Amino acid sequence: MSTITATNRERSTGALPLEAAANDDQVLVDVRGVRKKFCRSLKRSLWYGVKDIAGELVPASRPSASQPHDSSRSELRKDEFWAVDGVSFQLRRGECLGLIGHNGAGKTTLLKMLNGLIKPDGGQISMRGRVGALIALGAGFNPILSGRENIYVNAAVLGLSKRETEDKLDEIIDFTEIEEFIDSPVQSYSSGMQVRLGFAVATALDPDVLILDEVLAVGDATFRAKCFARIGKVLDRAAVIFVSHSESQVQRICNRGLFMSKGRPEYLGDTASALIAYRSSRTGQADDQRDWICGDDVRNATSGADKTHLKWGDKLVFRVNIVCDRPISVSNLYIQWHRQGIAFMESHHNVGLEAPIELNAGPNELLIESSPVHLAEGKYDVSFAAFASKGKQTVAHTYCAVEIQVEGPLGAGPAVQSPCTITCK
Ligand SMILES: Nc1ncnc2c1ncn2[C@@H]1O[C@H](COP(=O)(O)OP(=O)(O)OP(=O)(O)O)[C@@H](O)[C@H]1O
């Protein structure tokens, strides 16, 4: 386990109590009272930097108690502010933490500390095992080296031998789908290509901890769907920390949420509640639409092979968990089928024709069954949405949540569109 320790004493968050001591093997990330300060003035920041380094190198130049100015002090000097202030959490194997917050909340700074790119000014970080990270576009790549060379360099940094890297090389290049450019310098790659390479490398090298910062915002819908499937696989053996401004993405893959505001951890708990806290803070008051989607279990409910593989004429059955903060009547349900990012078939449950679905305050489980699916053979991504107030209010929405393999009698080819109804049990 690697440990990044700040120079000052550990500090509890105050807002959120520390979890139980991390002596269990499954804890891969243990973060305790981590803080990081920055300076708004570049000139001053350089001056503070020189003073701090001098203070560390030459004990005699360390300020005395009457001149308290070492960088790890909890007091802020002129123009300094806490970019991250007292964050604590633990992550176990199989857990995915969604890090949410407004611009400048300190999410990226926290990830950079977790990845060892910058040193905390307070608190302690312990990471167990291999850390795969995709924090900024192009970060970790040498722009003048080719994609292939960068794969070798990254793998070596993560401790893989040349042989191990060669074993994974084809899989990584296949995943990127940019084989024809793999020997071109990375500086000539588009942002989408850089994300493809970065994501493929970070996830293919068997990380124990995977750190992803806002990366899935770049890249097309088909690639995003592929990334989600890959994250699902990584989660079987790793802990994932995922930063995104997309609530549906966070909802889709995270089972825990940390809402940060101005560097402070405002809420740590289940994803749904963290998103509610985030939403409420955005409007400055409780969101009157916050009985929208709160949690979904589509990924888990369809992980069985019988459900992710459909034969021609099979029904799609899946389970959605929606947590509401008050009772609500769902008026419309949609299942949308996508192929290569294009939505082409929708299934409806329309309350105009059928009874509304009454959801209670708290967790609700819907078992949704489509009519028989008549689609050509191929892979499809399925999205789900539930609306109230005749479609005016979104209760639940999850984009490309499940990948379904349809074994059709027609072979690969254009999909056969057929109207489809949903029944809810
Ligand atoms: N190297 C730096 N020097 C000074 N200030 C910095 C530095 N890096 C980040 N900051 C500041 O720290 C604060 C937190 O930045 P950070 O990038 O962590 O926020 P974020 O939550 O990731 O934001 P976003 O959602 O916009 O990506 C911001 O006010 C930012 O301006």
From TrEMBL:
<dbReference type="InterPro" id="IPR003593">
    <property type="entry name" value="AAA+_ATPase"/>
</dbReference>
<keyword id="KW-0813">Transport</keyword>
<dbReference type="InterPro" id="IPR015860">
    <property type="entry name" value="ABC_transpr_TagH-like"/>
</dbReference>
<dbReference type="GO" id="GO:0005524">
    <property type="term" value="F:ATP binding"/>
</dbReference>
<protein>
    <submittedName>
        <fullName>ABC transporter ATP-binding protein</fullName>
    </submittedName>
</protein>
<keyword id="KW-0067">ATP-binding</keyword>
<dbReference type="GO" id="GO:0016887">
    <property type="term" value="F:ATP hydrolysis activity"/>
</dbReference>
<dbReference type="InterPro" id="IPR027417">
    <property type="entry name" value="P-loop_NTPase"/>
</dbReference>
<comment type="similarity">
    <text>Belongs to the ABC transporter superfamily.</text>
</comment>
<dbReference type="GO" id="GO:0016020">
    <property type="term" value="C:membrane"/>
</dbReference>
<dbReference type="InterPro" id="IPR017871">
    <property type="entry name" value="ABC_transporter-like_CS"/>
</dbReference>
<dbReference type="InterPro" id="IPR003439">
    <property type="entry name" value="ABC_transporter-like_ATP-bd"/>
</dbReference>
<dbReference type="Pfam" id="PF00005">
    <property type="entry name" value="ABC_tran"/>
</dbReference>
<keyword id="KW-0547">Nucleotide-binding</keyword>
<feature type="domain" description="ABC transporter">
    <location>
        <begin position="66"/>
        <end position="287"/>
    </location>
</feature>
<dbReference type="InterPro" id="IPR050683">
    <property type="entry name" value="Bact_Polysacc_Export_ATP-bd"/>
</dbReference>
<dbReference type="GO" id="GO:0140359">
    <property type="term" value="F:ABC-type transporter activity"/>
</dbReference>
